[in-house]
């Protein structure tokens, strides 16, 4: 279903413009990181791509979409777990996707094992630790076999150990052939997990640069200032 | 003062001896109010969920109306149901006036607004938390409502019990549509009112003690279930 093509996308709430004329094509392959300061509109842009918000103007088109099935998933900064077991949380997503009951159990067990949560399969999801919940959220999304996975600051609420586990899991998901699109404000993470950077500032897409050159020499003054500001020795 | 002690003693003997007249009244009360709660939940819970999740014109007016109807005076409900069910009324041909069925109808009408309004609040709060996640997983409004009803089940139990408490404790509606006929439509509250006015204080007091004890036990049980469940499921 990729590429995803955004053409002159604007999103406004009342008179406040949050996303301002963004045009970009998100293609198969590279891991895309949406970077930018707080309030730049990263999360909103991602929700527009995922389809949770409708653009005020402009268009968002999945060029390669062959049928109506949404082969995309999203994981949020704060995982929302249903009041049921970890396994049942994954099966819930599969049920909504129209997977047969037999298949659901098999897939859910598989994916739980893949994320290393098979030992808590029958525990209520809401009493798991923050890190486990986020891995479970990733598993729930991964089980759907998405072509594209949107991740909105997936490690922002986690301690460093749990964040590392989530990062390695994202690597696994990517290795299984899923395109990763992720927002972060963590430069180290952007470097580790990204191939290309979409830099957002005040709702505008300021630049799009491969990760390596972005951190050495960003193309825009805004990105340059952001990187300097974020570096600990400044 | 002496009289009160005598009455308490007599009441104790009536309860301990499971006096048939007393038992009959208690059982009828339970039958009527539990049936009413059952039907009111069947109507009120889905209604609450629909209003919580749905967006339609007149929604706010409906919420205000439901909230106001929580304070519906039982005698007025009794009067309206009486008019509907009386021989000349639109539903007169059913011939259920002065039967327990009429009492169930009146109590159901009385507590539907309570269950609908309170569950609407609980489910709407949960919806705030779940909305993006459920929509991301592709839930329709209908399946979201089902999910939320299940996920807020522990809070809903308390609401249903509040409805039961209201039904079991009201006098006005059942007095008018039931007629307080001995052995047929005499329930705890109407019996207490009658026996008090006739001076049979021990029976009135005995019924009062049972009524309060029942409500207390039910609420203690519900509280305990909710606490235990929330500890277990988070």
Number of strands of chain A: 9
Q: What sort of overall outline of chain A do the alpha carbons produce when their principal axes are compared?
A: globular
Which percent range fits the helix content of chain B?
Answer: over 70%
Strand order, main sheet of chain A: write it out.
5-6-7-3-8-9
Low-confidence stretches of chain B: none
What's the oligomerization state?
Answer: heterodimer
- Count every helix of chain A, treating DSSP H or I runs of 4 or more residues as helices: 8
What is the CA-CA span between the terminal residues of chain B? 51 Å
Q: What's the average pLDDT of chain B?
A: 93
Helix content of chain A: 25-40%
Structural class of chain B: mainly alpha
For the largest beta-sheet of chain B, the strand count, sense and barrel status come to: none
Determine the mean pLDDT of chain A: 93
Question: Beta-sheet strand percentage of chain A?
Answer: 25-35%
The helix/strand order of chain B is HHHHHHHHHH
Structural class of chain A: alpha/beta
Q: How many strands appear in the DSSP assignment of chain B? A: 0
What would you say this structure looks like, in words?
The complex is a heterodimer of chains A (234) and B (234). Chain A has 234 residues and is α/β, with parallel strands linked by helices. Chain A has eight helices and nine strands. Chain A has helices spanning 42-50, 86-96, 101-114, 130-142, 160-175, 187-193, 211-216, 221-230; strands at 4-13, 16-26, 32-35, 57-62, 72-75, 148-152, 179-184, 196-201, 204-210. In chain A, the strands form two sheets. Chain A has a six-stranded mixed sheet, with helices on both faces. In chain A, strand 6, helix 5 and strand 7 form a beta-alpha-beta unit. In chain A, helix 2 (86-96) crosses helix 3. The longest helix of chain A is centred in the C-terminal third of the chain and has 16 residues, at 160-175. The radius of gyration of chain A is 18 Å and the shape is globular. Chain B is built from ten helices and no strands. Chain B is globular, with a radius of gyration of 21 Å. The relative contact order of chain B is 0.16. With 234 residues, chain B is mostly helical. Chain B has helices at residues 2-16, 20-53, 59-69, 74-85, 100-136, 141-151, 153-169, 172-178, 188-198, 201-233. The mean pLDDT of chain B is 93. Helices cover 80% and strands 0% of the residues of chain B.
């Amino acid at each position: 279903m990729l590429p995803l093509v955004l053409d002159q996308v604007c999103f406004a709430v009342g008179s406040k413009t949050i996303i301002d004329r963004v045009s970009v094509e998100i293609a198969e392959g590279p891991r895309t990181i949406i970077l930018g300061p707080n309030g730049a509109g990263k999360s909103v842009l991602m929700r527009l791509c995922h389809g949770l918000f409708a653009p005020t103007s402009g268009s968002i088109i999945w060029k390669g979409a062959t049928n109506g099935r949404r082969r995309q998933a999203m994981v949020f900064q704060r995982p929302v777990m249903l009041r049921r077991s970890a396994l049942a949380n994954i099966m819930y997503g599969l049920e909504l996707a129209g997977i047969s009951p037999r298949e659901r159990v098999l897939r859910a067990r598989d994916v739980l094992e893949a994320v290393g949560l098979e030992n808590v399969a029958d525990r209520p999801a809401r009493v798991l630790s923050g890190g486990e919940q986020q891995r479970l959220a990733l598993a729930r999304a991964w089980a759907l076999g998405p072509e594209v996975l949107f991740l909105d600051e997936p490690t922002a609420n986690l301690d460093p150990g749990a964040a590392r586990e989530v990062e390695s899991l994202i690597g696994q998901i990517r290795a299984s052939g899923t395109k990763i699109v992720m927002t972060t404000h963590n430069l180290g993470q952007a470097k580790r997990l990204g191939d290309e950077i979409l830099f957002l500032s005040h709702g505008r897409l300021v630049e799009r640069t491969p990760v390596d050159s972005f951190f050495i020499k960003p193309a825009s003054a805004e990105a340059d200032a952001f990187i300097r500001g974020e570096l600990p020795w400044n | 003062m002496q009289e009160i002690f005598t009455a308490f003693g007599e009441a104790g003997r009536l309860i301990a001896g499971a006096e048939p007249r007393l038992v009959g009244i208690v059982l009828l009360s339970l039958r009527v109010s539990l049936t009413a709660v059952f039907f009111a939940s069947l109507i009120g819970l889905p209604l609450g969920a629909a209003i919580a999740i749905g967006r339609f014109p007149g929604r706010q007016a409906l919420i205000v109306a439901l909230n106001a109807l929580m304070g519906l005076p039982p005698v007025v409900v009794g009067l309206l149901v009486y008019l509907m069910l009386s021989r000349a009324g639109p539903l007169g041909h059913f011939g259920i006036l002065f039967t327990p069925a009429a009492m169930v109808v009146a109590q159901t009408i009385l507590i539907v607004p309570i269950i609908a309004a309170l569950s609407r609040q609980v489910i709407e709060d949960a919806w705030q938390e779940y909305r993006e996640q459920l929509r991301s997983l592709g839930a329709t409004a209908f399946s979201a409502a089902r999910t939320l009803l299940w996920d807020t089940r522990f809070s809903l139990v308390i609401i249903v019990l509040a409805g039961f408490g209201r039904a079991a404790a009201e006098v006005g509606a059942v007095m008018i549509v039931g007629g307080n006929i001995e052995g047929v439509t005499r329930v705890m509250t109407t019996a207490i009112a009658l026996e008090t006015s006739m001076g049979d204080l021990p029976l009135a007091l005995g019924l009062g003690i049972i009524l309060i004890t029942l409500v207390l036990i039910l609420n203690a049980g519900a509280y305990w279930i909710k606490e235990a469940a929330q500890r277990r499921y988070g």
